[in-house]
Design a protein that fits this description.
single chain, alpha/beta, seven-stranded parallel sheet, 7 helices, SDR family NAD(P)-dependent oxidoreductase
Length: 285
């Protein structure tokens, strides 16, 4: 999509953090933006941002739990009724669940996977047919994490696998759409540390998942972060990530990886995989 101006975008988890950064950047480019979030207070704050920045007439606030499939369809119906046909779908909503994976409960798994992976799938199932139907083309953005391609870290045994799955999902989606010759681009956003409200993750854990678990009593929602070789620009402004994402939409770039300084961690993981493929790694007879 070279031109974003006038396109209708739908951003989940859009009232704060990276989601709001993407929504603001899309609005800068002229898009009409439906901002969806669970938190009504944050939606009101996002409306204030839109008014302050001059895109209130292209802003729609919607309450949405991405695990609610009928609610997802209803939110898209309202978006298209008020803003126009969906072209840009941003599956950004996620939870920064963190804790020792060897002590995880079913509730921890159900919540983390339900939001971070199935929530994305719900967006694709509900949104892709709408983009295909109008024939104007479009773009799908899925937010994952740089942790999905890096070496394993403490406390990330649910979070990182869900994000790795979103990366693989997006790669496969791109192949499928290209094979069909459809004018629908794909991007997976893999952020490192960004100034967001991820520390508040556990405040929004639904009651049915509020079991006795170490995941609900951890001190560091980001887990053990790797050293920052560059020293500067560690915690990025979400608006910068939003602008990087808009650039990727325009150029149909598959990956947005915000922290290239962490490349050594990625290389170490890949080197271990390659080493395991050596002829002498396993018995061959």
């Amino acid at each position: 999509m070279k031109s974003i101006s006038g396109a209708v975008a739908f951003v989940t988890g859009g009232a704060g953090g990276i989601g709001l950064g993407i929504a603001r950047a899309l609005a800068e480019a002229g898009a009409r933006v439906a901002v969806c979030d669970l938190n009504g207070d944050r939606l009101a704050e996002a409306a204030d941002v839109a008014a302050r920045e001059g895109w209130a007439d292209r802003f729609l606030a919607l309450r949405l739990d991405v695990t609610d499939r009928p609610g997802y369809a209803a939110a898209l119906d309202e978006t298209e009724a008020k803003l126009g046909p969906l072209q840009i779908l941003v599956n950004n909503a996620g939870v920064g669940i963190a804790g020792p994976v060897d002590e995880a409960t079913h509730a921890d798994w159900d919540w983390g996977v339900g939001v971070n992976l199935i929530g994305v799938a719900n967006g694709l199932v509900a949104g892709i047919p709408r983009i295909k139907a109008h024939g104007m083309g479009g773009h799908i953005v899925n937010t994952a994490s740089e942790g999905g391609i890096m070496s394993a870290r403490l406390t990330r045994g649910i979070y990182a696998p869900t994000k790795a799955a979103v990366i693989s999902l997006t790669e496969h989606l791109r192949v499928e759409l290209e094979e069909k010759g459809l004018d629908i681009g794909t991007t997976v956003v893999c952020p490192g540390p960004v100034s967001t409200n991820i520390a508040e993750t556990e405040l929004f854990r639904p009651a049915e998942f509020q079991v006795d678990s170490p995941f609900r009593a951890r001190d560091n929602p980001h887990g053990a972060l790797p050293a920052n070789p560059g020293g500067a620009n560690y915690w990025l402004d979400p608006l910068l990530v939003g602008r990087q994402t808009v650039h990727a939409i325009r150029e149909n770039k598959l990956y947005v990886i915000t922290h290239p300084a962490f490349i050594d961690s990625v290389k170490a993981r890949h080197a271990a995989i390659e080493a395991a493929m050596a002829q002498d790694y396993l018995p061959r007879e």
